[in-house]
Amino acid sequence: MMNINIYPILSPVIEALGKAIVIGAIAFAILILIALLFCIFIFHTHRIIFPNLVLFLILVCEEPLRRLLSFFHVDPTLVDRVSVEIGNAVNYPAFASTKLEERALLLPQCIRSPDCPAKLSPVEGIKCVECGRCEIAKLSAVCKELGISMYISPGGTFTKRILMYNYNGGSGRVKAVVGVACYPNLHEGLLNVKLVGIPAQGVPLKTTGCVNTTVDIHEIIARCKMGIGNRE
Ligand code: SF4
What we know:
The chain folds into two domains: 7-76, no CATH class; 98-231. The protein is 54% helix and 12% strand. It has seven helices and six strands; from the N terminus they run αααβββαβαβαβα. Helix 1 packs across helix 2, helix 1 crosses helix 3 (78-96) and helix 3 packs across helix 6 (183-195). The mean pLDDT is 88. Iron/sulfur cluster is lined by residues 112-113, 116-118, 128-134, 136-137.
């Protein structure tokens, strides 16, 4: 039986593959570094530069970026904060062009009092009865006054259903959204809402957690009314 030495054939292929992997790894490391520098710049200056490029870099390098920040003992939600800040700025023109009655406020259920008497509707989420045990009562009253729809979502899947029901299968009048959540959920939520073509504004929770979270209701109301004063 003839012995064929395949090493001379494979050797250049393996060498080329090795070089490609090293070049790819260096290029990816450079991308992470560029994304990190952009994030730090935007976080500290609040100046939005190259928004689409930075959002793309964040999406591509998200996990390594978080690990790198954690390694240097920096809060990894910096990535989410920058992403939300960019999302709010990019979505502003489309959001501001909508009427108040075309907007919806989406709240997470963690703001509710543990003794909340509200019932869950399979279509519209948790229906606040304005009992006054949490800040949602005030937001509900303001939303009614402004003509904005308000929804309390028990979870991410439900949020999507609320949006789909009202945007596609329902009355179809929700054309813009103000979402309230912790930064990681806002980061994900703003991207998801953009995919269904709804301009959104994100407002972070003041204190996070699974229960008894708090919000800045003035900031939420200001976001809900954004762009309206400019037209008067
Ligand atoms: S104000 Fe609304 S959401 Fe808050 S505890 Fe009362 S019913 Fe529940």
